[in-house]
Here is the input.
Amino acid sequence: PRATGGSSRWAWLALLLIAIRIVSVVAVLHSGVEEEHSILGGDALRYETITSSDGWPYRDFEVEYPPVTLAVLELVVGQDHLDTLTRLAVSQLVADLAVAALLGWGWGRRSAVAYLLLGTPMVLFPFPYLRIDLVSVLLAVLGLALLRRAHEISAGTSLALAVLAKLWPLAVLPRLLVERRWRALATVVVVGSLGTAIWLGLGGIRGVEQVVSYRGARGWQIESLPGAVLHLLDPAASRLEQGAWRTGTPMPGWSRPLLTLASLSTVVAAWWLVGRGPDRSPRVLDGVAPLAAVVGLLVFSPIISPQYVVWLMPFVAIAAAHGERVLGWLGLAVSALTTFILASIHAQIEGRLYAMLPILVRNGLLVAMLVLALRTLGERSTGPATDGAEVRSSLSA
Here is the structure.
């Protein structure tokens, strides 16, 4: 009876959180989001521009999205702007709920509900549903869930498609090396190579360059760690560049290679700590380690768009559901602050202190999350080997 009652409470909480999302989507689609100056509808305008451009993508016009995302854009762009926003919102709501379902299937109901809780602040101003990033999150989580269930070829295919949708899932792939999942790794290589060949065939090396450099943008985006400080000091020097507000100070030529090196070093450090230790629990392999790797990409990135925080939430949810409560609270704070940051974007562009301080705090929390995750991995790498109890309990929770 106690277990049944507990299951019922989890189910009712999940249903409540799902209902909040549905109401949010209906409300935003009736809020004038299709109007020209809507904060939430701006990215959809860019999607429409891409799909309506003449010629070959990457070759005849610039595109900042990898080919899988480009294919999804062709599906969600509708006959008019409101139609596009409706398709986008519904598809991303479905993707979000699918991520929660996969977390429940792979890591237990606590992980699923934790994920829904972490995302709730963002649905109060539902920018993730009017962006395309949940596609890559869904593919990455699907790949990891399939890997957890020992479907290695399907897992490798999904992870390769995730990378071809958005580059950030590259930070998760070293897990295959750590666990010696050779069939999954081989599948990633084969599917990834085929997708990359198609990509290069469409646009040549310029297509990859456009994605990596965000169409050649040179400034620091004003929500990045350096950009927020520079913008606060001199708001008048900022400008709109390639769809994002960036500081007028161009990044030095050496900065991008240095940032890339720092990001890669973080990814390597996270998975090296896992590889050298005996702990193979879900808390480490599926929560803390991928979280550290992906947070490292954000911390050392010249751009932190608000929707990028959705990349983190599945891993925060898994970590928190398996005992890393501080990381869970940090993730919830990042979610709430990011929502406020986007909602106050006009004041942010003007450099108003009340709008910039949440960015500085949010960025500080991302750094704290990275430090805490790496420290946790360091401690777990020298601890006792897991006996599999946590693995079994996570599937039944």
About this structure: The CA atoms of residues 238 and 247 lie 4 Å apart.
